[in-house]
Amino acid sequence: xxxxxxxxxxxxxxxxxxxxxxxxxxxxxxxxxxxxxxxxxxxxxxxxxxxxxxxxxxxxxxxxxxxxxxxxxxxxxxxxxxxxxxxxxxxxxxxxxxxxxxxxxxxxxxxxxxxxxxxxxxxxxxxxxxxxxxxxxxxxxxxxxxxxxxxxxxxxxxxxxxxxxxxxxxxxxxxxxxxxxxxxxxxxxxxxxxxxxxxxxxxxxxxxxxxxxxxxxxxxxxxxxxxxxxxxxxxxxxxxxxxxxxxxxxxxxxxxxxxxxxxxxxxxxxxxxxxxxxxxxxxxxxxxxxxxxxxxxxxxxxxxxxxxxxxxxxxxxxxxxxxxxxxxxxxxxxxxxxxxxxxxxxxxxxxxxxxxxxxxxxxxxxxxxxxxxxxxxxxxxxxxxxxxxxxxxxxxxxxxxxxxxxxxxxxxxxxxxxxxxxxxxxxxxxxxxxxxxxxxxxxxxxxxxx
Length: 450
Prior knowledge:
Blueprint: E1 3-6, E2 9-12, H1 29-47, E3 54-57, H2 65-81, H3 87-90, E4 91-92, H4 106-111, E5 120-123, E6 129-130, H5 134-150, E7 155-161, E8 163-164, H6 168-182, E9 190-193, H7 196-205, E10 210-213, E11 231-236, H8 246-257, E12 265-268, H9 272-279, H10 286-292, H11 297-309, E13 311-316, H12 319-327, E14 331-335, H13 341-350, E15 367-369, H14 372-401, H15 410-419, H16 426-440
């Protein structure tokens, strides 16, 4: 009897056979994730020409944990392309990361010895190309002009970004200035875009650059393990860039969950559930909080895994919360933001490897909901469906194996329960588990004597 893993519980393949016929080969979540991880690595490697030192410009390391995942993904790929790359030595800061890295200026660039051996400047990955975060764009443009004027043999590669301008005239004028700088470079710069809208807009505007559609940079992390969930659903709502607003979404979530009293859930405004307990108690603004709580990239990654790992199903409107959940093999329902960043990015990614990311083959492909009312309803039905499958699966295992009675599965049940237990429950959990093991899995009687 073949077994499949669904929602962290091992069930017989006959469970839910109407949805997953035997003719369909079910795809492990890691197959799609790892295929996309390899795709972004191969694209970056194929477009890199510089033989000198690589530099990561302004890696995002601020309180938005999702941006830290981009830095981690970039570091993984750069170490593969440049074995000597060291984030602590070869990254510079133009914005909020200056507590971790030196400033991006000529003093830093001179240490990279680009005059002797031209290298590669990798511009930060993320979603801030345009006028939505204008200060960042201004610094990026200033850097491009400076490199083209003083280090023209250095290659510039823009890691995967999202393009968004509210002001169309500004987009055109910026493109004109950038094309002038691009034309001065010995190697045509490469700009990577993580969704089709951004790629198409950039291809029309940046005629002096090579524009390429790629998966999001965080996908380079690849599949990761996940702890046993301790509750059913995490609902994350962003304060900014929301279509209906945070207050409306919060009220909708409360009202919708009134219809599902048996389901456990938690709410969070983005990543604040894990950054807040470290920083918000200071009662300071976001910038000051960053000064006091500037964790390294790996620590922030661990905080994100901890937050998402506790939930069986994740509902979110943040792109990298959806992506990290995907890397962890979670059930995901997402609600898009005001400029469709999530759907555009995810659908573009899945188009790279359709054979591994096909709906029929990949059970845990992220599902889009139009709003939070629909998202919560869909998530609740996933939980209820999983609970039903567990119940049906236990009885089917009993019917198919005969000697394996339902009560003999108690050791498995207690093992699962104890693995996520709090400190206060460790001793009673262990006692019950040992008694259960002794009752059901005791060794046979020696020579028939009991």
